[in-house]
Design brief:
Distance between the termini: 41 Å
Structural class: mainly alpha
Number of strands: 0
Shape: globular
Number of helices: 11
Order of helices and strands: HHHHHHHHHHH
Bound molecules: 4-amino-5-hydroxymethyl-2-methylpyrimidine
CATH class: Mainly Alpha
Radius of gyration: 17 Å
Strand content: under 5%
CATH topology: Heme Oxygenase, Chain A
CATH architecture: Up-down Bundle
Number of domains: 1
CATH superfamily: Heme oxygenase-like
Helix content: over 70%
Largest sheet: none
């Protein structure tokens, strides 16, 4: 996944340091039920309303990564990914809201769950560093963790599109290649950091994994 084994160790060590939260995210009950097609509609609706707001802050963070990347070769995959999220993925949200009977008034009335607020604040913090490595740390957690749970479906998809498409959006050749590149990019940039900068990346990475776990947990909290 990375240019050299020495660089590869940075992302793997970040992931290992984020246990047990990393495994709690990638093996979360939400993902098990999604893959099995047994996820409760109210849980999915609650999750998607909050996640659409996550995506807003996430696209802004992608923009900061695009702006702070050290070379044009890095801006290209980030731009392509931003284009996918704001087209195919946003379209999925709108169709899923319709299928689940979630209208715009309901979406507007629901407050941010504390888990959403925490995650949005973390993404804003990373974005406002205007530092490529810090932006990458949070992006890598979001995309690598989602690829990891989506891969567990192993190509067997549940019948309803609300479930199946949320899996395939996070496990398809384009997404797999992007996540592989994103992780190798964190390894490349991480190899150039001093100890203090490395510690900042580690801190953001670990807090992002904890935020992912709390975000899935929140979907099961009473409305
Ligand atoms: C909370 C969360 N993390 C990661 C992703 C993947 O982009 C997502 N859609 N939502």
């Amino acid at each position: 996944m990375s240019a050299s084994p020495a660089e590869a160790r940075f992302s793997l060590s970040l992931r290992a340091a984020a246990e047990p939260d990393w495994s709690a995210v990638t093996g979360h009950r939400f993902t098990d039920e999604l893959i099995a097609g047994t996820l409760d509609d109210a849980v999915l609706a609650r999750y998607l309303v909050q996640d659409h707001r996550f995506i807003d802050a996430f696209v802004a963070l992608l923009g900061a990564a695009i702006a702070s990347a050290d070379r044009f070769e890095a801006r290209i995959p980030l731009c392509r990914f931003a284009a996918m999220v704001t087209s195919d993925e946003n379209d999925y949200f709108l169709r899923a809201f319709k299928a689940l009977g979630v209208d715009e008034a309901m979406r507007a009335d629901l407050p941010d769950h504390p888990a959403t607020a925490t995650f949005k604040a973390l993404m804003a913090e990373a974005r406002l560093t205007a530092d490529y490595a810090c932006c990458l740390a949070v992006l890598v957690v979001a995309e690598w963790s989602y690829l990891s749970w989506a891969e567990r479906a192993g190509g067997r998809l549940p019948p309803r599109f609300e479930h199946a498409e949320w899996i395939t959006l996070h496990d398809n050749p384009f997404f797999r290649e992007f996540v592989g590149w994103l992780v190798s990019e964190l390894d490349r940039v991480g190899a150039m950091l001093d100890d203090a900068a490395r510690a900042r990346v580690e801190d953001l990475f670990r807090r992002a994994v904890a935020a992912e776990r709390a975000f899935f947990d929140a979907a099961y909290a009473a409305a």
